[in-house]
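Page 37, continued from 36.
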């Protein structure tokens, strides 16, 4: 039986018509995405320059935020971080527009969920930064108070105060990111119980004599006032 080109002519024409009909959407999606990339790069540069003009990084150094990240092996550049977030936010928005033009509904829905999740990431970062600031502040206050009272273990007590706040901030950030929130709550409850038990045992075993002396001194002061 001789081969007939008419057998392939119909499917090939249908494929060609589909490609021709789809081509404007494909070109439009590429144009929209490229425009989004350009806008994202421009906005990133603008954010970095604005943060530099406001001297936010210098302020972070004064608050010892930069030093804390350097101790952890990370280099904090707030302008670069905010610029990176803005850049990728608009890149994802451009991808959403492009996939919507192409009719890729599943990809569009996924990218929309990513965009909706970005505010949680920003809030979590703010919580971590606030935790570091508050931890350093409380550490200095506790250390100064203990040294002024001429008590021992000023470094130890101020370190406990600082790391308690840092751990609490880390757990709050994880909850904000919706990373195993129930597990984080259980761990936080267990941590508080462990600290309370450890403190009680330490005071009961090691601080018994000090507590006795304190009560005797209080009794003498009350008797002398009478």
């Amino acid at each position: 039986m001789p081969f007939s080109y008419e057998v392939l002519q119909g499917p090939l024409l249908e494929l060609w018509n589909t490609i021709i009909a789809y081509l404007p959407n494909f070109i439009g999606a590429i144009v929209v995405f490229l425009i989004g990339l350009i806008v994202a790069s421009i906005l990133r540069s603008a954010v970095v320059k604005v943060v530099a003009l406001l001297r936010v990084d210098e302020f972070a150094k004064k608050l010892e935020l930069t030093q804390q990240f350097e101790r952890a092996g990370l280099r904090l550049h707030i302008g670069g971080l905010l610029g990176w977030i803005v850049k990728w936010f608009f890149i994802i928005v451009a991808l959403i527009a492009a996939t919507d033009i192409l009719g890729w509904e599943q990809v569009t829905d996924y990218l929309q969920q990513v965009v909706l999740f970005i505010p949680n990431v920003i809030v979590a970062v703010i919580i971590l930064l606030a935790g570091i600031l508050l931890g350093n502040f409380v550490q200095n206050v506790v250390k100064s108070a203990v040294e002024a009272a001429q008590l021992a273990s000023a470094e130890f007590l101020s370190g406990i105060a600082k790391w308690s706040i840092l751990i609490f901030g880390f757990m709050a950030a994880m909850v904000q990111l919706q990373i195993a929130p129930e597990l984080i709550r259980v761990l936080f409850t267990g941590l508080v119980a462990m600290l309370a038990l450890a403190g009680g045992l330490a005071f009961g075993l090691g601080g018994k004599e000090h507590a006795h002396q304190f009560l005797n001194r209080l009794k003498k002061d009350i008797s002398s006032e009478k």
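The chain has a mean pLDDT of 75. Flag for discussion at group meeting. The radius of gyration is 31 Å.
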